């Protein structure tokens, strides 16, 4: 495959998502309008759905895309959540759980990649991303408050789904890689 094929439209959208993350962080930390932050976040999240759809429908799935797409997702979610910790909208310990899962899965992906194995996201991993895309705008608009409110329930459900999908990913991934290397 020629290097120019690596920069197809789906991969460009993934790279745009990576480039949007610092802009989102600046907007969140400098306390611009919450609506601006939500809009930037949702535009970035839309590139995730668009790049996957375009890659599959155009048959433009590349190794670069398979590896960069989940990294771009994790940068977006981690950048948003860590910024929200900084401004007091979410408890740090919940963000640590979510981000730790992402690091652990990336570690497993790296081991698999070293063996020329790509472990795709499963349905739980995709549901986790959807849940995160829903909860982040809720957290941007309102501080997390423990109790029976939409933001609290959404964050707890997202954290539980994040852990569950991580466990599923490890169960599947450990079956596929050679642990003796």
Question: What would your notes on this structure say?
Answer:
The chain is 78% helix and 0% strand. It has 181 residues and is mostly helical. The protein has a single domain (3-176), classed as CDP-alcohol phosphotransferase transmembrane (TM) domain (Four Helix Bundle (Hemerythrin (Met), subunit A)). Its main location: membrane. Its EC number is 2.7.8.5. It is found in: Membrane. InterPro entries: CDP-alcohol_PTase-I, CDP-OH_P_trans, CDP-OH_PTrfase_TM_dom, CDP_ALCOHOL_P_TRANSF_CS, Phosphatidylglycerol_P_synth.
Write the layout of secondary structure elements.
Elements (H helix, E strand, L loop, with lengths): L2 H4 L2 H21 L4 H24 L5 H24 L5 H23 L8 H19 L8 H27 L5
Helix pairs in contact: 2-3, 2-4, 3-4, 3-6, 4-5, 4-6, 5-7, 6-7
Short description:
The protein has helices spanning 3-6, 9-29, 34-57, 63-86, 92-114, 123-141, 150-176. The chain has 181 residues and is mainly alpha-helical.
Keywords:
CDP-alcohol_PTase-I; mainly alpha; 7 helices; membrane; 78% helix; lipid biosynthesis
Name the structural class: mainly alpha
Question: What is the CA-based Rg, rounded?
Answer: 17 Å
Number of domains: 1
Query: And the CATH topology?
Result: Four Helix Bundle (Hemerythrin (Met), subunit A)
Biggest beta-sheet profile: none
CATH superfamily placement? CDP-alcohol phosphotransferase transmembrane (TM) domain
- Beta content: under 5%
Helix amount: over 70%
Order of helices and strands: HHHHHHH
Unreliable segments (pLDDT under 50, ≥5 consecutive)?
none
Total helical segments? 7
* Cα distance spanning the termini: 29 Å
> Would you count the extended β strands for me?
0
The shape is globular
Mean pLDDT: 90
Give the name of the CATH architecture. Answer: Up-down Bundle
**CATH classification class:** Mainly Alpha
Oligomer: single chain
Subcellular location: Membrane
Pfam family, one: CDP-OH_P_transf
Protein name: CDP-diacylglycerol--glycerol-3-phosphate 3-phosphatidyltransferase
EC number: 2.7.8.5
